[in-house]
Amino acid sequence: MTGFRRVDESKVHQGYVWHLATAEFESPDGERFHRDIVRSPGAVGVVPLTVDDDGVASVVLVSQYRPPYDDYVVEIPAGMRDIEGEDVIEVGRRELIEEAGLEAGSIELLGEIYPSPGMTDSVTSICLATDCTEVATDRQGPEEAFMELLHVPLSEALAMIDAGRILDAKTVTGLLMTDRRLRSTGD
């Protein structure tokens, strides 16, 4: 159905995990055009869910400095699929320990998203972690060293989306997917 085809692609810059490519494409009517593309191994975001004795669902979020915005961003724990061949669930488990100091008793894939399809081929997998226990964190780099953990009722996290306090796409998606899952299972 697409009728588009990639004619050529070359790497312009190799970063630590991503690389920047410039590519030439041909449209269905034969027009040639160029686009810059960030090639990425993808990422995994994890919604750590806890339920208290009263049945109130809560999530653990991180507030982390993000250089592109020169500000702190509220997010679900997440990280790059930067170890070749590592399974999505294993990446989720690793990132949950690194960033939140939580080990999931159970973790499942909720779905996948294209976080910015106009500029990157990155796919972000969204997981739900339950039965979490506290363990030592293994934070990597200065941004993680200064991140803050936020324990928030799920209803409050959803209100933070509505209020514009959570803007990160994977976090918005993960929280909405989690809420939908809980509503569909009656939990």
Automatic annotation (TrEMBL):
UniProt EC number: 3.6.1.13
Domain Nudix hydrolase: 39-174
Domain of life per record: Bacteria
Pfam families per UniProt: NUDIX
Entry annotated with the keyword Membrane: no
GO molecular function annotations of the record: ADP-ribose diphosphatase activity
GO process annotations (BP): nucleoside phosphate metabolic process; ribose phosphate metabolic process
Family matches, as PROSITE patterns: NUDIX
Cofactor(s) of this protein: Mg(2+)
Keyword DNA repair in record: no
Entry keyword set: Hydrolase
Name under which the protein is recorded: Putative ADP-ribose pyrophosphatase
Lineage of the species this protein comes from: Bacteria, Bacillati, Actinomycetota, Acidimicrobiia, Acidimicrobiales
The gene coding this protein: nudF
